[in-house]
Amino acid sequence: MASAAGVLPLKDCALAVTPSPVPVTAPRPTPGLWIALAAIALSAIALPLLAVLFAPPPPASPVLAEISKPKRVVPAAELPEVEPVRLAALSLDDARAFNAAIPFSTDPNPAARPLILDAGAEDFGRAVDCLAAATWYEAGDDPVGQRAVAQVVLNRMRHPAFPKSVCGVVFQGQERRTGCQFTFTCDGAMRRTPSPVAWGRAQTIARQALTGSVFAKVGHSTHYHTDWVVPYWSSSLDKVAEVNTHLFFRWTGWWGTPPAFRRGYAGAEPVVAKMAALSPSHGGSDVALATTVDPAAMLDPETIPDSAVPKPVAVGGDSFHVALDKALGADAFAALAIRTCGARAYCKFLGWTDRTKVPAVGAALTPAQIEAMSFSYLRDKDQGFGKALWNCAEFKRPSPIQCMRRTPVAAAAAPAPVPSATPEVLSGVRRKAAPSPTPVPSPAIN
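-> structure tokens emitted (446 positions)
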């Protein structure tokens, strides 16, 4: 019988066989699942987009909020304010972007009427040179830009909100660092002078403008600026023209229309000390030069507190007789005078460091008090005139044209007091002595 040795039982030798995987069929997405997935994907895109589109705008920067002024239409019965030139602290690119966002006015932009300046030879010469200076310093040696600037100056002269003379308009506010209307008059630019050829071209354009030439494109514009700066007034006016890199504006409402530009010419031009290097008409030994303190050295009048502002000689008046504190310094006298005069169109400020020489209220000035005067300031906005003078025997000044003309007490022939209206030291133009009257023979008696 065969042996069973070496043969395993069936249960012990069974092989470990891995069963084959049973195939699983993945469920197919239902239409509802597709819709759900699409909705999730759409919301992932749409929600951030909606958040951007409908989110509240970020708050404007303080600078942009302040310069984005709404237009204000000043009624005809109220004179519009001439704002000082203050520029917003914006980069060049931001300024250009802001200026480009201001739309041009769609209202008519009629040309200004021709102007023929009715003035004597001396005054006409001063007007030509003041206008030439404005065109050259503001527009460079560019004839088109110069003509545009000249038109704005003449528009201002005809407008009641500005001085009535060419030089008065150009040098308005020159006595203050923050008040000049044409920045070249107070920022030191006039230390640089044009070449004789360039100056001659500017004079020619100025002379043409004063004898009837009109630059029609700027219409009745009274303001302008380059496109890389933003004055605080720019968005509140009507933008009407662009000439090269300059933008031109007029007041909104009636004050920007032709009927508003009907003011007459003063008939005379003030002498401007800063023009002496360019213009013989503004210099020479026969002319008492109108002068002001150097703005770079002068204290800002806004720093003078209200408590330091003196009272006028008469209630509601425009004349001030003031005891000055020598410790303030000579340049502070000009700041005090300008702060005291405030917005007055006409103002006379007379000061003494010797308190005993200050006239009593209501008393007329005596020759001795005039001789002892330490400082004087006279303003007449109608003539575009502002002049500060010092007693140079008491205070040294950088230029003799800032010195009072002295009249020794012994030379005063008339014993009567000098009228308090305007002492000799405040005279803007040295006048010729009045001619002696020509004797008229008595008619013959028949």
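Residues 73 and 253 are 5 Å apart (CA to CA).
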